[in-house]
Here is the input.
Amino acid sequence: MSYYARTQVYKVDAVTPEAEPIAIAAETLRRGGLVAFPTETVYGLGANALDAAAVAHIFEAKGRPATDPLIVHIAALDALETAAREVPAVALDLARRFWPGPLTLVLKRAAGIAPNVSAGRETVGVRLPSHPVARALLLAVGVPVAAPSANLFAHTSPTTAQHVLDDLKDRVDVVLDGGAASVGVESTVLDLTGDAPTVLRPGGVAVEALRALLPDLVYTPKYLSEHESAQGPGMLLRHYSPRAELLLYAGEAGAARAAMRAAAERLLRENGRVGVLAYDEDRAVFDGLAVETAALGSESDLEQVSRRLYAGLRDLDARKVDSILARGTIRTGLGAAIWDRLVRAAEGRVIEVE
Ligand code: TXA
Ligand code: MG
Here is the structure.
């Protein structure tokens, strides 16, 4: 069963959101509907986090397993207590430093939050987004809003309203179209409920920036296959996936480029349609080959790469490629999030070259 709704799309100014579409979207949330809205990271699929029936519709619309918890979005720091309880001092320090922005804090869940938001856990992920449309909507609705990324389960995350419609048309009541997301990868998820602060997902806030405040920070990337996934939510290896098979190359850049060129030649000989997720520095490698290219911009501009990553994957899918070749870049700063998404999109098909 899937959630059905006749989707209404409203354009809204990304800097100074107009009052009317915000009011319509807020009213839709208040009466238990679903609203997709832009955040600085990716578009979210929102429901009133206090309303278990509305939250259940998120899982239905996405085809998301009920075991995978949702992030709760709040309008201001003083609303944190509506989402979380027994908030440690360090969480407030982090919130003052990184909010509004792409950091999600996992805390103890407040009594009012619907248990299905947290997939039955006693904890809840909370974030205060910086996008003016998200903030205006959260202020107008006056309740915490549960919102995962607004894509079908395990598919590539949406960075534009069109991406949302491509996945969820007639599965969401309202889409606020505020243009393209500026960060392009999801928030960093930081668990503050265990013995040591632990990064569960690298994202828009660099792990290094968190470590400066949290010397005992733990980050050990884990990529679990489907049957192991019970160990941790959201750690599924298959995630963020395009329809095409993604092959991810890692190792010394020159050797990786040579291996990618050889793979492209082989796949083309086998009559496959080949896509390349290409940094500017890699484009000449494919000269003379009939590959489809999605440009990530310069490898040295990781902010641009993350902004273009999901759109590039969706674009190559739309061009009906069978395979996508991509190369991993540095794994520090935003690079950690980019690498994480590429590995999951590749479902672990990482080719390490010498
Ligand atoms: O940037 C973002 O975080 C976007 C925008 C819309 O805010 N949202 C997003 O949500 O990426 P989603 O549902 O696609 O990813 C949420 C992930 C879960 O898969 C899980 O890894 C983690 O956040 N998470 C949420 N609540 C958690 C909890 N209580 N315990 C552990 N992990 C949690
Ligand atoms: Mg997601």
Remarks:
- The pocket of threonylcarbamoyladenylate (ligand 1) is lined by residues 39, 41-42, 44, 68-71, 102, 104, 106, 118, 121, 123-125, 127, 129, 147-149, 186-187, 189, 200-201, 233-234 (CB under 6 Å).
- The longest strand covers residues 103-109.
- The chain has a mean pLDDT of 95.
